[in-house]
Amino acid sequence: MSEFQRDKRFLTGRFKSIGFAIKGALKLATTEHSVMVQLSVAFLAILAGFYFKISREEWMVQTLATGLVLGVEGLNTAAEKIADFIHPDYHKKIGFIKDIAAGAVFFAALTAIAIACLIYIPKI
Questions:
Q1: Residues annotated as binding site for ATP?
Q2: Where is the chain membrane-spanning (predicted)?
Q3: Active-site residue, 3 included
Q4: pTM, entire model
Q5: Which fold has domain 41-123?
């Protein structure tokens, strides 16, 4: 069975899917500067969580916010890479698509900032 052929067996297919997901997450974390910055902010938020002894519920919300930002950033990066592959030169419609994807990251980041403010401002 070639590496890229779909594995229809349940367990081995799932393990391969997990492997591809980990490979993709590592590529995001090591090649995309925006993701590197967001991972650094996430690390600081984790440290702040331990320092301020946030509650279990606050940990859950903080974790969801972090995952939201990183997940949307991953989708934004994928959309940008596809757009660049399809049309490497500047094109108005491609620029529009990229702007919308970046806007989605912006909304996720604003949500995460609001959550961080709700958690940490009362503790400062």
A1: 32, 80, 98-99
A2: 35-52, 100-121
A3: no
A4: 0.87
A5: Helix Hairpins (1.10.287)
Which one from 3, 57, 58, 73 is the annotated catalytic residue? 73
User: What are the binding residues?
Assistant: 32, 73, 80, 98-99
Annotated binding residues for a divalent metal cation, written as ranges, equal: 32, 80
The dihedral sign for the CA sequence 43, 48, 49, 53: positive
pLDDT at 77 over 70: yes
> What gap in Å lies between CA 123 and CA 62, rounded to an integer?
15
Give 53-56 contacts, CB < 8 A, sequence gap 24+: 54/119, 54/123
Per-domain boundaries in the chain: 41-123
What phi and psi, each to the nearest 5 degrees, are found at residue 110? -60, -40
- Distance in angstroms between the alpha carbons of the first and the last residue of the chain: 57
Report how far residue 113's alpha carbon sits from residue 62's, in angstroms, rounded to the nearest whole number: 10
Q: What is the pLDDT of residues 90-121, one digit of tens each?
A: 999 999 999 999 999 999 999 999 999 999 99
